[in-house]
Each structure stands twice: as structure tokens, then as C-alpha cells.
Amino acid sequence: MKNYGEEIVHMGNPFTLTFGKKPSEYIIRRVDIEEIEKTFLEDPARSQSYLIRGVRGSGKTVLMTAIAKEISENPDWICVDLNSSQNLIDDLSYRLLDACERTTGIIDRGMDISVAGFGIGFGSKSDRDSVSRCEEILNMLKKKKKKLLVTIDEVCNDQSMKQLASQFQIWIRKDYQIFLLMTGLYENIYAIQNDPQLTFLLRSPKITLGPLGLSQIARQYERALNVSGDIAMQLAKETKGYAFAFQALGMIYYDNEKSLSIEKQLDIMDEYLDEYVYQKIWSGLSEQDRNVVMQLSDSKAVKVKDICEVTGMTSATFSKYRERLLNKGIITASQHGYIELVLPRFRKICEYYNM
Ligand SMILES: Nc1ncnc2c1ncn2[C@@H]1O[C@H](COP(=O)(O)OP(=O)(O)OP(=O)(O)O)[C@@H](O)[C@H]1O
Ligand SMILES: [Mg+2]
């Protein structure tokens, strides 16, 4: 153990367990960023909405924030981030005005903004007023040839999202340059499936976040932890590229260096995985999903035929669960007829939940 006080270790450690914030040890997802930016930046845009899916802790919020930051550096764009726990259209009208006021040249000098309904008593206005306030600003943006990116972290199937979704479609029909970038957990997005007001979400292009590259992780560990290439790669493999595990193991190794064996450090990682993410992931799985997970292995791909045999599922039934676990980002099907766990040490940790 390094001979540092608690606080110093914590302060000096470049790794973090904090969700939703760009970490200092950051691995850029260049391919995903380019794919999403290309969709929005092409003229005409290929789509005006995009959905980032992925299991908890895979880095959805960090990716969304990175894209918003890049796009906002372009002077032709205005970006606003909505908080999905509020009324989204009200929230949009506030944040839109705020963003425009902060950007010079959008709101013409002398324009009486209260005309747009931003006067006193703003908070008590009805939804309809929020819509017209937004449209007023969208018109200004159109005149100035500015595009608007709206980000929403963790969309869900509630009334406020439905309102925003239908309004968004009207705005697209009216030819406003408004773009929507969202993140969501599969289970929340799946719930949207049968809702006609939200089908546009399902038609939006989407990516499911995969693991970070092992060689990038190893390079980062080598530098940040000051270890040999071999050890760095050994640690990288233990994370399986899972973003949260990359931070967790980096943090543990940084604090404990050589005083603990790698096995002991992995035991500590298990505690973090359990507490911060796996319990939540497990509680979102159905009984059959869990049965499938319990047939999988942390170290190798498993034959689909064997899983069907043990669980007594027909291959048609199995393919339903397979599809869902794939979409949730819990398994991959890298070779035909096999599936494999994406998350590191997931099977081992789930063993406790299954007892
Ligand atoms: N590109 C990255 N490079 C390094 N670390 C990352 C990267 N993306 C995410 N992380 C780390 O992974 C963890 C989870 O990231 P993030 O909060 O973005 O996940 P999430 O998918 O939004 O999770 P949730 O579904 O719970 O909101 C954080 O500790 C973050 O620091
Ligand atoms: Mg998140």
C-alpha cells in the first residue's frame, strides 16, 4: 500500500468511479463519434435523431457529452442539454433562451424578448406557451442559419417524452434544423415499442456501445500506472473493455500498486462492479434472462445448442432471449452458434445474486 493518507490517494488518483462525467483517463470512441456526427452534419442530414444504447456503465453519458462538446465548438450550432426528470418542453424553452442569450448575434438587439412570452410569470405558463416560446427561438435560429442540438440523457417512456417526441416531429416537418441526441437503457427503450407517439425513437439510427479497445486501455494503463506493457495488457484483458471496469481497476491498481496481488485487486474490483452496476443490471433481467446468463462463462463463448438443452428452451424461444440480451449489451454473438458475456466477471458475481 502506498504510504499516503486517504485523501491524498483519492486526490492523486486519475481514475474515477463517478458516472456521467468525462474522466481524466479518457479513451476516445472515435468511430462512434464520427458515425453520429456524420449522420447529423451531412447535408441534408441522414437523420435528425440518434440514440445511444448500452448497458449501465458502458459510457453512454460520457459519449453523448463528448459529441455535444465537439458540436458546440462549431459556431453554426447551439447545444442544449435537457434533464429528463423535468417537463422536457418547458426545460427546452428555458435552456434555449439561455443558450441564445449567451451566444452573441442570435437575439437581435432591440428585440423585445417578452413578446416571445419570456416575460414575468414564465414558470406558470402552460405547455402550449412553452411550445410557442421554443418556436419563436427556432425561427430566430433559422434566420441566422444556426442548427440546434438537443441532448437527453436516459430517455424513458413517460408523458413528457411523448410530448417532446410528437413536437419534435412537427418541428422537423416545419423544416427547423433541430437534432436530438439521446441515450437510453434497452429496457426503457423497449417499453416504447408499442407506443405510436414514440415510434420515431425506434426509427432513429442507434448504436449499442461495445467495449473500449483493449490496446487503447493497455496503453493508457502503461502510462498512468507506470507498468510494463505485459502487465498493462493483463489488466486490460481483465476489464474486457468495459468502461466502468477500466476506471475501477485503474483506480485500485493505482492505490495498491504491488502491495496486493492482481487476484486480490480483482476481488476489490468485484465489489465495485457489484455495488455500482451489476446489482442494478441483474435486477433488470427477467427470470429466463437470468437462466441464460447462469449458463454462460466468464472466460469463453458457450454453444447455443448446449444452453437450449440445459434450460429446456426451443431454439425459437431462445432466440427471443438471445436478441434481448444482445440489445441490452450483456452478450455478443461473435461466432455463429455461440454467445459470450460482454461484462467482466459477470457470471461469477451473479452467482451470488442467484443463490
Ligand atoms: N470513453 C471512456 N474512457 C474511459 N472511461 C470511460 C469512458 N466512458 C465512460 N467511462 C467511465 O465509465 C463509467 C460509466 O460511464 P457513463 O456514466 O458514461 O456510463 P453510462 O453508460 O451512462 O451508465 P448509466 O447507464 O448507468 O448511466 C464512468 O466511471 C466513466 O468514467
Ligand atoms: Mg449515464
Compact overview of the structure:
This protein is of the alpha/beta class and 355 residues long. It has helices at 6-12, 30-41, 60-72, 88-102, 127-143, 159-173, 186-190, 199-203, 214-224, 229-239, 243-256, 262-283, 287-294, 304-311, 315-328, 346-353; strands at 49-53, 77-82, 147-152, 178-184, 206-208, 302-303, 331-332, 338-341.
Please describe the topology of this protein.
Layout: H1 6-12, H2 30-41, E1 49-53, H3 60-72, E2 77-82, H4 88-102, H5 127-143, E3 147-152, H6 159-173, E4 178-184, H7 186-190, H8 199-203, E5 206-208, H9 214-224, H10 229-239, H11 243-256, H12 262-283, H13 287-294, E6 302-303, H14 304-311, H15 315-328, E7 331-332, E8 338-341, H16 346-353
The structure holds adenosine-5'-triphosphate and magnesium ion (MG).
